[in-house]
Every structure is written in structure tokens, then in C-alpha cells.
Design brief:
- The protein is mainly α and about 80 residues long.
- The protein has 3 helices and 2 strands, in the order αββαα.
- It has one domain.
- It is about 70% helix and about 5% strand.
Length: about 80
């Protein structure tokens, strides 16, 4: 029973961490001339909001790691 609970917790952490990292990661902007830029916003407030959102990628990836650790512990039981 404990291994099932730990496995479910690990799966949820991996899922939420992966989705969060995908949503908060910087997305490239493709320009008509073929060049690519990561932040194409001229507005300073939008760039600041985007930067704050991108700072959440590391905690989301740490959730993935913790979830994988829980799954490892669940396998040991």
C-alpha cells in the first residue's frame, strides 16, 4: 500500500513539474526573415513578467526530480 501511494505521489509530481516546466520555459519567436529570438517584446513590463515566469522552470524541474525519487523509493518497498 505504501509503495502505491509513493508511486502515485511521484507520478503526480513528475506530471505537474513537467507540465509546469513546459509552460514556463522560454519559447522562440520566429521572425519573417528567418531569424529566431527568444524575447521579442519591446514592452519592459511584459519582459519582466516573462522573466519571472521563466524563473519557475528550475523549481518545476526539481519537482520532476523529487517525483522520480519517490518512485525510486516506491520500487524499494
Amino acid at each position: 500500500m505504501a509503495s502505491t501511494v509513493l508511486n502515485i505521489i511521484g507520478l503526480l509530481l513528475v506530471t505537474f513539474g513537467g507540465v509546469g516546466a513546459a509552460l514556463f520555459s522560454p519559447a522562440p519567436k520566429y521572425n519573417p526573415d528567418g531569424s529566431v529570438s527568444l524575447i521579442g517584446e519591446p514592452d519592459k513590463e511584459k519582459r519582466i513578467r516573462m522573466h519571472r515566469r521563466q524563473k519557475l522552470v528550475r523549481p518545476c524541474l526539481m519537482l520532476v526530480g523529487v517525483g522520480a525519487f519517490f518512485q525510486l523509493v516506491a520500487m524499494a518497498f
